[in-house]
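Re: [ENG-882] Designed sequences occasionally contain unexpected residues at chain ends

Forwarding the minimal case from QA. Structure tokens:
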């Protein structure tokens, strides 16, 4: 199993090297893959959503299916055409080759623009991995269904479909001052994409999925004991359906696996930290993201929650021209930050947050 986890880390690091500031998209999508969950990317066009799924497919040696959906997309374009030869014999059969039915991964772009016929078919695929084709029940081999959209549906009839994508990430354009690095990374991706070779196979993905399932069930009491209180507290900020809540332990262990954490290294601290990070992928909309950031700031381990409060206090002191007190507080904050940086669990999970705190402290110190 450790060899498999090492391959997962290699997959994640390869993707990180190909995409610019795409850490959440990469980590969340791999988390979804290893628990056979549906995953949706929400954001404007041109943010590399399709390239991400294509790259994952190549690295995992997976067959993938892509379709841009519109109101005019025919159901045959998704599940396959009627077999004309069989039809002439009086038999109604469909050719499923090269359709979503035979794919390992499927990316459905602008999924909420599809016709009602496709949307109804997608519900059974997302829920049961089957399609009801005439009088036949056809198993769908698709392991993970990826959705992509530039909008969150307001229509009531689409809410059930949206809820079947419980893991979500909001993509966005790079900032103007990030253009140079973005262009360099984008050109490297264009050059290296065709050279990508598999690191894992789908058989190994399935084996890893079995491990994650077994780990959660064999350690259910411990896992649930430490994850549930955090989720329960989060529900005061963000609504999560019962269906999704039940699967959070699986998401957390998959997330830890994506980070390369071995079974023997999963302890209370990593379970709690993993839960805090996974909750970001369970938000419904951008307003929920603000709620998540607020929740995270008050629930981070060690000194990090205290540091967030201190940063706000220092800002207030500078605004009120209490500069000598602000200097002392900044000194105290740096000492706490050094302790946080020295803690391996805190550093591993919250490096980005600590870098943001450090950057803010440096900016505040420059004002004194």
């Amino acid at each position: 199993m450790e060899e498999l986890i090492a391959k997962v880390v290699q997959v994640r690091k390869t993707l990180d090297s190909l995409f610019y500031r795409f850490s959440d998209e990469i980590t969340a999508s791999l988390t979804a893959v290893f628990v056979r969950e549906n995953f949706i990317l929400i954001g404007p066009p041109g943010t590399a959503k399709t390239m991400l799924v294509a790259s994952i497919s190549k690295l995992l040696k997976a067959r993938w299916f892509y379709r841009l959906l519109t109101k005019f997309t025919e159901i045959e374009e998704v599940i396959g055409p009627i077999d004309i030869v069989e039809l002439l014999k009086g038999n109604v059969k469909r050719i499923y080759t090269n359709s979503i039915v035979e794919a390992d991964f499927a990316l459905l772009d602008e999924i909420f623009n599809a016709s009602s016929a496709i949307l109804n078919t997608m519900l059974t695929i997302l829920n049961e991995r089957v399609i009801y084709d005439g009088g036949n029940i056809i198993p769908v081999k698709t392991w993970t269904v990826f959705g992509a959209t530039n909008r969150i549906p307001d229509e009531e009839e689409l809410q059930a479909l949206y809820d079947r994508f419980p893991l979500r990430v909001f993509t966005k354009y790079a900032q103007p001052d990030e253009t140079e690095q973005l262009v360099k990374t984008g050109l490297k991706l264009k050059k290296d994409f065709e050279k990508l070779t598999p690191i894992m196979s789908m058989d190994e993905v399935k084996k890893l999925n079995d491990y994650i399932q077994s780990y959660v069930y064999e350690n259910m009491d411990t896992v649930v004991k430490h994850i549930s209180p955090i989720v329960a507290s989060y529900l005061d900020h963000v609504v999560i359906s019962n269906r999704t809540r039940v699967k959070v332990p699986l998401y957390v262990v998959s997330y830890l696996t994506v980070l390369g954490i071995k079974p023997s290294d999963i302890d209370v601290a990593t379970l709690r930290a993993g839960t805090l990070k996974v909750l970001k992928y369970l938000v419904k909309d951008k307003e929920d993201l603000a709620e998540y950031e607020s929740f995270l700031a008050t629930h981070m381990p060690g000194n990090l929650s205290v540091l967030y409060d201190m940063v706000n206090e220092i800002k207030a002191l500078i605004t009120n021209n209490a500069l000598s007190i602000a200097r002392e507080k900044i000194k105290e904050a740096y000492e706490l930050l050094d302790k946080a940086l020295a803690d391996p669990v805190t550093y591993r999970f919250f490096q980005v947050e600590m870098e943001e705190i450090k950057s803010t402290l440096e900016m505040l110190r420059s004002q004194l």
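QA comment: On inspection the terminal residues look reasonable. The radius of gyration is 23 Å. Proposing we downgrade this to a documentation issue.
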